[in-house]
Amino acid sequence: MSKSNLTRRGVLKTGAVAGAGLAVPTYLSAGSHAGFTNAPGDSSVTLGFNVPQTGAYADEGADELRAYELAVEHLNGGGDGGMLSTFSSKALDGTGILGRKVEYVTGDTQTKPDAARASARSMIEKDGAVMITGGSSSGVAVAVQALCQEAGIIFMAGLTHSNDTTGKDKKANGFRHFFNSYMSGAALAPILASNYGKDRKAYHLTADYNWGYTTEEAVRTSTEAMGWETVAAVKTPLAQTDFSSYVAPVLNSGADVLVLNHYGANMVNSLTSAVQFGLRAAEANGKNFEIIVPLYSRLMARGAGKNVAGIFGSTNWHWSLENVAGSKYAGTNAFVQSFGQKYGFPPSQAAHTCYCQTLLYADAVQRAGSFNPCAVSEALEGFQFDGLGNGPTHYRAEDHQCFKDVLVVKGKENPDNDFDLLEIVDVTPAEQVSYDASIFGGELGSCNPGA
Amino acid sequence: MDQIILQILNGLDKGSAYALIALGLTLIFGTLGVVNFAHGALFMLGAFCTVTLSRILSLSHTVIDESRKDFLGNPLKVEVPYVYDWFGESTGAAIIDWSVPLSILFAIPIMIAIGVAMERGLIKHFYKRPHADQILVTFGLAIVLQEIVKYYFGANQIPAPAPEAFVGSFDFGALIGFDAGAIIYPYWRIVYFCFAMILVGAVFAFLQFTTFGMVVRAGMADRETVQLLGINIDRRFTLIFGIAAAVAGLAGVMYTPINSPNYHMGMDFLVISFVVVVVGGMGSLPGAVLAGFVLGILESFASMRQVIEFLPGINQVVIYLAAIVILLTRPRGLMGRKGVMED
Q1: Cα B43 from chain centre
Q2: Quick check: A302 and B10 CB within 8 A?
Q3: For residue B229, what is the domain's CATH number?
């Protein structure tokens, strides 16, 4: 009879060590040979484009994907080079990134945080993506950004407008080129004051989720600071399709302005209801009743059709910017030309920000001389650049938010075509939409290179 | 008081859509015994009949306008609809403007054909299967249909405005003695409510006053006996499926100016419509209509700011709360019949 050396304590210790080993996410060990996650080989580098390919924002996702493909083509020396020729940094030369050919994989976020994390995880673990980018929803962006932080991957946010992305939920590995709710409020307020006066009573309808809250707060703060009063702010369910019950009481509420803190289908439907209920033609408190849409998207404006006519909002960028506001916004025409020649129509602001983010990442790697996320992060922090269509832009180190001019736009009364729906009313200087990095809380933390 | 009337009006037009979809659902359940989860997709297909006709009427040829430039700086290509060439610009513009009402004529044969094809091609194979199988297959069909629509029309909403004559709103309050501007209501929503009433009336009249309807009602009450009399009840029930599809489709056609259609709009209505059917009473056509309006009005009242401030979140659950209360007090629903789904 042999005697076993196994002890209860020994078994527990062994089990604990083995369990911990198995529990380590596989992305922490994937491609870790160079001291960071998914270090690329000598010939190619893989980027992960995580966009909504199904679901309500699929059309926006398709436009983002077009822009990503165009950016990859330009990085690899194809096409007309797009904004590479106007970009103030000349580190990129059309030979890929650090001499490696740029390849890409795509994922479908479905505009759902869980699905977006799953597709991002798959691109990191299975495809070896060294950078993840994409957007169309702040909930998705915040979720994927947190995943990339854990995985030691750089996240270049696409279209995400909530303050939280680079506010309370900011991460050291995450960067946002797109503007945010605070900037929309700050840009819109002076224009609203000059067009509608300082004695106004506003009624807010707000989508009942994170982006809606931050947008309402931003617009309220900015408009109240200039003298407007907020009569009421009503949360509307995200799944709401018919807003008549919410819009109908507005006219008798004492308000003379309706602010629709809605995006996507919510925006199209609430604006349609508001116009149907005659708010555009109504008078209240002796003034014309007005409607405001803080965040405009051309793709959504198409859905609302003629209802957007005369309604103010803000955007990150517009394809006509350089023609309207001059060569300060160089890069716009180059990008529009490049995109328009390839696809037959002008790019959306979602496409623009995604294209810029890809170039900015590639440029940062090139300047840093490494794909190591911490080196890339260092190269992006505080980076001042120009020529990407928004004028002089600053990637603030404290919160990884880009600061640049913000566009105030208005729905055109008589658009020439489906793409000519918005006209630029004003370009608000970056200084006017800047704020202290600490006001939204959150901790950037430290860069995580992964393995 | 004006707010109460306004919310009742809101509830009526919302209830109109619920009632029309639920009416079709009940017709199918009452005749074929099938729980059709693809019914919301039929509502959506109706809406896309409007989009399709609008696009057909707007089919254009290109004219180069050298005096204007496109976004790339090239001479602008102006699209000129063929109907302008055929009927003159003003008549052509009027035809396009009236594309939503014209879609009624376009949608009826298409929706009946879709309904018949659905029933003959797929659903008839599931008559003798459990309700769970029927739900699964029809739900799957709904997803397939909406993905097909998304493939061809995209995911974004597509505007389909009402004719210019019905754009805007009128002062309903002034008609009933309230202050001017107290109750403003959109023209098209009144049109939608009237249309729904006519359609509901037509379906009931068809079932009540025609021989075909009499046979169908007899079949709903006792299918086997009707078949023993030598009547091919299956063929009639197939046509009823087509009619139910047309009712849902027409509800979708006329709904397009209220909410710009997108591929997902059927799913948005589906669950609520099932609640409407259950609350109205499984198999009861008047119950479906009554419950549609009752729940539509309740939902409108629950969306009032004063109500939400008092009971946060009530706007999202009121329909389901009402359903629970009604089913606890009247287990067969408002007008349910004994023996339906009780075996």
Answers
A1: 5
A2: no
A3: 1.10.3470
